[in-house]
Design brief:
heterodimer; A: 113 residues; mainly beta; 6-stranded mixed beta sheet; 4-stranded antiparallel beta sheet; B: 114 residues; 7-stranded mixed beta sheet; 11 strands
Chain lengths: 113, 114
């Protein structure tokens, strides 16, 4: 079945550091790829998505590029802030038949001021 | 638009009791999803509906868990004979129902089984 792998379980950075959270997927065809962010006491919130090879999604300074060859959708931000501390989820949704979403295990980001 | 509404926010039950969780999707959304979230397992898919019809319940424990969507404005997740291992945050999400649309999550119901 489809799967999403996030390499980092936790990431600790200082403000203004560069962020990369790795996301690799396994699915047939061209699934849509997503990043969601979750703050304490809330449900995951949509950050952005990409649906085609080489498409870049971005929001709030975060970005990721759909890489079909590498089956990756790595999240990056050039300069993190303390307010970016949250849990980040990579997800995919198939585009044939069953539109069930598959989420990665999540990466907890802590940014120290 | 109030977003996806889940009630109650917190529920405490004793072992063996029944728990019913409610979800009101965003108006106009035709797909409703249920997920369970724990520290150990992360986000686990349970089931989803499209146009009120059950489409995929492959994540639902076969015993004790059931979900319904009697009308387009609400869905329920029922857990019978709750066990301590059912303690989790149960998240409901809705989408417009077409391929790969964005999911909008509620704030979840934290279920604690004593």
């Amino acid at each position: 079945g489809d799967s999403v792998t996030q390499t980092e379980g936790q990431v600790a950075l200082s403000e203004e550091d560069f962020l990369t959270i790795h996301c690799n997927y396994s699915a047939s065809g061209y699934p849509a790829l997503f990043w969601y962010v979750q703050y304490p006491g809330e449900g995951p919130q949509f950050l952005f998505r990409a649906s085609r090879d080489k498409e870049k999604g971005s929001s709030r300074g975060f970005e990721a590029t759909y890489n079909k060859e590498a089956t990756s959708f790595h999240l990056q931000k050039a300069s993190v802030q303390e307010s970016d501390s949250a849990v980040y989820y990579c997800a995919l949704s198939g585009n044939t038949g069953n539109y069930k979403y598959v989420f990665g295990a999540g990466t907890r980001l802590k940014v120290i001021a | 638009n109030a977003g996806v509404i889940q009630t109650p926010r917190h529920k405490v039950t004793g072992k063996g009791q029944e728990a019913t969780l409610w979800c009101e999707p965003i108006s106009g959304h035709s797909a409703v999803f249920w997920y369970r979230q724990t520290i150990v397992q992360g986000l686990e898919f349970l089931t989803y509906f499209r146009n009120q019809a059950p489409i995929d319940d492959s994540g639902m424990p076969k015993e004790r868990f059931s979900a319904q969507m009697p009308n387009q404005s609400h869905s329920t997740l029922k857990i019978q004979s709750t066990q301590p291992q059912d303690s989790a945050v149960y998240l409901c999400a809705s989408s417009q129902g077409t391929s790969a649309e964005t999911l909008y999550f509620g704030s979840g119901t934290r279920l604690t089984v004593l």
